[in-house]
Amino acid sequence: MADQDQPAFVDIRPLLQRLWPDPAKENVTAKEIADALSLIFVNKISPVQTGSLLTALHFTGWDRRADVLAEASAAMRSHAASIDFAAFESVIAKRRRPEGKYNGGLCDIVGTGGDSHNTFNISTTSSILASSLLLLAKHGNRASTSKSGSADLLMNMQPKPAQLNRITPSTISTVYGASNYAFLFAPVFHPGMRHVAPVRKELGWRTIFNLLGPLSNPLGSAIEARMLGVARTDLGPVFAEALRLAGAKKGLVVCGNEQLDEVSCAGPTQCWQLVEHANGNSVDVEHFTLEPADFGLSAHPLDTVSPGREPQENAEILRKLLQNELARDDPILEFVLMNTAAFLVAAGVCEADESSMGPGDDGNVVRERGPGGGRWKEGVRRARWTVESGEAWRQWSAFAEVTNSLPA
């Protein structure tokens, strides 16, 4: 008699046999791969075949193809925890603040990780600053390759750590009722990932799931703009194309020349930006290079922004930054300002020719354009305002407060 507790696995050997050694020769499609990955999320593939699938994708390089990433991320989003979008949208509509070419929608900034530089949590910090001007839907997780991941950082913040586990599909609208900021903790919104976690741990190398996270924000098409950092320059055009294939119209993919998944504060950064045609019917990918000077800021060696510290230590740096206790030329602050500025440019808010951010805003819009036609210095002006006006700290505090009020 069969074990009643044993899942009824689907046998994917026919696909596995075609995946190795040459998937193209066997006419394997991105949709076939996405369908197989979908089975993982519902625990319908055995651990052995799961490991074989991830291994074949890794060593054939098919886990780094734009079409595969686009299809697989769509499959991952389709298995995310269900959100009542009708109720959610009514809350979001009240918080929208369109400006420039930003339509007031949700935005995300995230990196793939794995760059081995152990820099401060730049994209997470930038997401908090940007929430002063944009609606943020930050997708993230605990650390997998560093000491301090985005979730680790926020759950160690003082005086009131964020309770990320309490943000669920049923409570996220409450969060946006109190703040422009929300964090979508991957284990809560992608529960199917628990089925692959033991296999990934035993394999010991980065798999397609290390790349899918930044493309799999569970709010999906509700995301208006995103900035995505990759840890290898060859992945830049791949991720930009994956975003385009997934239907994104506004996005910026960045990779520092040091193979850094941020805009680099030390030197050149390669950028791939999605640019929508005036007719709205098509999107192109444009490549350009940014330097710290394009932001009107100084270059800083990476070892000045790479403390490699524990989450509680990074959380203290974040607190000081948000409470405007760092010097204006502090390397970590300027690193954050560059990335926040790039994010604001990508969202379109810097295209406004008038500025009315609030108290402390001098209104002197910097119209100068740099590489890619972006107003990078205007982005820095706005990013500085979020810190010096106290607005970034107010948004963070409101977020932390509401998460602590949610049911445990």
Task: Describe the structure in your own words.
With 408 residues, this protein is of the alpha/beta class. It has two domains: 13-64; 85-405, Nucleoside phosphorylase/phosphoribosyltransferase catalytic domain (Pyrimidine Nucleoside Phosphorylase, Chain A, domain 2), CATH 3.40.1030. It has 16 helices and seven strands. It has helices at residues 13-19, 30-41, 47-60, 66-78, 85-95, 122-130, 150-154, 172-178, 186-189, 197-203, 208-212, 236-245, 311-322, 331-347, 376-388, 391-405; strands spanning 106-111, 135-140, 181-185, 223-229, 251-256, 269-276, 283-290. Strands 3-2-1-4-5-6-7 form a seven-stranded mixed β-sheet, with helices on both faces. Strand 4, helix 12 and strand 5 (251-256) form a beta-alpha-beta unit. Helix 5 runs parallel beside helix 8 (172-178). It is globular.
Order of helices and strands: HHHHHEHEHHEHHHEHEEEHHHH
Named CATH architecture of the largest domain = 3-Layer(aba) Sandwich
pLDDT below 50 for ≥5 consecutive residues: which ranges? Answer: none
Number of DSSP strands? 7
Average pLDDT across residues?
A: 94
CATH-defined superfamily of the largest domain: Nucleoside phosphorylase/phosphoribosyltransferase catalytic domain
Q: In percent, how much strand structure appears in the residues?
A: 5-15%
Kindly provide the name of the CATH class of the largest domain: Alpha Beta
Secondary structure tally, helices: 16
Key features?
408 residues; Pyrimidine Nucleoside Phosphorylase, Chain A, domain 2; 2 domains; seven-stranded mixed β-sheet; 16 helices; globular
